[in-house]
Structures are given as structure tokens and as C-alpha cells.
Amino acid sequence: MRKLEFPKDFLWGTATAAHQVEGNNIHSDWWVWEQSGGGAEPSGRASNQYELYKEDFQLAKSLNNNAHRLSLEWARLEPEKGKFSLKEVAHYRDVLKTLKDLGLVTFVTLHHFTNPQWFAKLGGFSRRKNLAHFENYVKFCAKNFGELADFWLIINEPNVYVALAYLRGLWPPQKKSLLLGSRVFLNLARAHRRAYKILHRELPTCQVSSAINLSAFQPKSKNILNSLFCKIIKFIGDDLFLFLTRKSYDFIGINYYFSKKVSLTISKLFPKPQEMEEILLDGRSDLGWGIYPRGIYEVIMDSARRLKKPIYITENGIADEADAKRGKFIVEHLKWVHKAIEDGADVRGYFYWSLIDNFEWAFGFKPRFGLFEVDYKTWERKPRKSASLYAEICKNNSLL
Length: 400
Ligand code: BGC
Description:
Elements: E1 4-5, E2 11-15, H1 18-21, H2 29-35, H3 49-62, E3 67-71, H4 74-77, H5 86-101, E4 105-111, H6 117-121, H7 131-145, E5 151-156, H8 158-167, H9 178-202, E6 207-213, E7 216-219, H10 224-244, E8 252-255, E9 259-262, H11 294-307, E10 311-315, H12 326-342, E11 347-353, E12 372-374, E13 381-383, H13 385-396, E14 398-399
Parallel strand pairs: 2-11, 3-4, 4-5, 5-6, 6-8, 7-9, 8-10, 10-11
Antiparallel strand pairs: 1-14, 12-13
Helix pairs in contact: 7-9, 8-9, 11-12, 12-13
The chain binds beta-D-glucopyranose (BGC).
């Protein structure tokens, strides 16, 4: 095989989110929900990264990474409406400074599925007037962390958040309402646009996006009706957020996990990933998600063509406790990322999800996405085989 070199200055990293790794996120809506029996199990101390971030960032460094993605936890920073915690500001400043001192470029997410309890009680993003609270938080973050954040991701996967929390009722606040879901979606788009302006006003040269979950779509059969239906589902499910917010991006953050085969059955407008017929190439992950590496090429090329912005893959990963498929998963996806670059897409970085095992939302701790395995009793981190493979790729800036 010929050596596949990535562009000079390509960013290599891993991604995490506060609630999934930090632990004791007691002021968030997820915490209350988990305590009242929501999801498979409570997040508790998660992967204890609140205490172990320095060690964890050394692990990132040991992977020869030159970038890292994490999220700030709004519920920690503003546990009560309008009252920001100086202790948590100092904490996150140290977190980000640690990354910078290690020479890692920082990608900072502002909202990754969780809300402060007080914000959720006010109706969260379902009420337009609540957006002022989010804007206030964004402004606060710009002022307090501005020089430590190289890239900002305003909202993580707005489409997934709305689908799971407001349409399928699987995440807090467990609603199943198209009307409410649509309202939240539109407000998230407004929140993105306003946050984009705020960040640019406070930090004129900053780089801003949201992290958009995109899937590769295919009509199940090629008849005209089905193809049209597939295009509509793709537009509503994946492209609409970008469409509503398209003038507010300096780059595009793409999270890619799987593909969707669409057939014309209205009852399956929002199927669970396990229920969906996928384009399978390499079997499934422990969560039952079909592995389709070519899909990453399809979503990159589609976004590159439509949006004409630099692209960073802000998440791509697999739940694979035995670590039997992860290495191949990474290599195959990267081959397609490389091909997208050869075919003209301006892809500038790749973040594997995730650095360490963590709390996989309503599924609890069972799915293991980490390059490092976490022992949830001792907090010990152990590299999986795939960690050294990823470290080699990052070191060489190429696939051998
Ligand atoms: C989310 C992560 C999640 C990952 C794996 C993404 O949709 O941003 O928080 O852990 O997928 O499910």
C-alpha cells in the first residue's frame, strides 16, 4: 500500500465531554434525571477526570496528539442563575492551560447535551426568552477562557439532542413532541447564530463552529419516490441546522459514526440506530451501530461542496470493549478522510472519540469507546492495543 500522508499541520486528537468524564456534575439536569432512575445507571464520578485531567492530558500527549477537544460544563460554571463560580473558572483555566503547556491545540465545546438545573427548570431551549441566559454564559466564557481556546464549538450535535430529548423521549426532559422539538431546534439555531456573534465581538480572530452529527444516507431502493424521501429525511435530520446557521461558521465540525438507509415508512421517521437498516461494510460495534467507513468520505465531500469551509472531524469512534475492531475502524475511516483531501476537501484535523472510556449517556458505562480502558473502581487507565496504532499514525502524520 502506498503511504498516505496527511497535510502538514494536520491536527490529531481525541474528544471528550465534561459530563461523560469529569464526575459529580451535580448541578446539571442529567444528574437529577439519573438520581431519579433515568438511564441505565447514574454517572457518579464518571471517569474521575475532574481530578485526573493532568494525567489524562499526558495520555493524550503520549498518543503524539497535537490537539484535544473537551467541553466546559455550564452547570458547574453557573450553578445558580447569574452566579458564576470563581472556583470553577480557576479549575477550567488550569485545565486549558495544562493543554496549552503540553502544546495541544484546544477545541472547546460550550454545550454538550447537559444544562444547569435552573436553566432546565425554566424550560431550557424550548423558550426563546431563555436564550439570553445562554448568551450570558457564552460571553462569560469568551471573557474568561478566550486566550486559552483555539477553536470553539458552540453546540454539540443539536440534531441528536433534539431527537433523543424531545422527540424520542430517551434523555431528559424526556418529551415526545414534534412541536416542542421543533421549537428547541429553532432556538438552538438562534443560540448558535447569536453565540457566533458574541464570540467574534469578544475575540475578533476566533474560530467558531458547532459539532454537527452527519450520517451517510442512501435510499433503500432507487425508485424516484424513495430517493426523494431520502433527500428530505437527510435535509431535515442532518442538513437543516447547517442551513439555518450557514453564515455563522469559520469551519465545520463534523461528528461521524454511521450511515442510514432510508425507506419510505413514515412510522420509522426517527428509528433507533439498531433498528435502522444500515449500509454495512465491517460489521457492527458493541452498540449495534453498523460500520461504514466510506460514509465519512460522503459527509465530508457533501459538506465541502455545499459549505466551502475548512473541516475538522470533531468525533469518530467505536464502542468496542474487546478492542478487536477499533484499530481497523480508525485506519479505514482515515483512508477515506485522506481520499476526501485528495479529492479537494479542506480537512484539517481528526479527533477520535474518545481518549478514555466514559459515561455513555443513557447507556451508562457499558459501551467502551476509549483508546484507554478505565477501571471504574481504581480509576486506573490502561492503553488498549489500538492506542499505540493511533499514536503511530499521529506521529507519522500518515497511514503506512
Ligand atoms: C456524542 C458523544 C457520544 C458519542 C458516542 C456523540 O453523538 O457527541 O457524547 O458519547 O456520540 O455515542
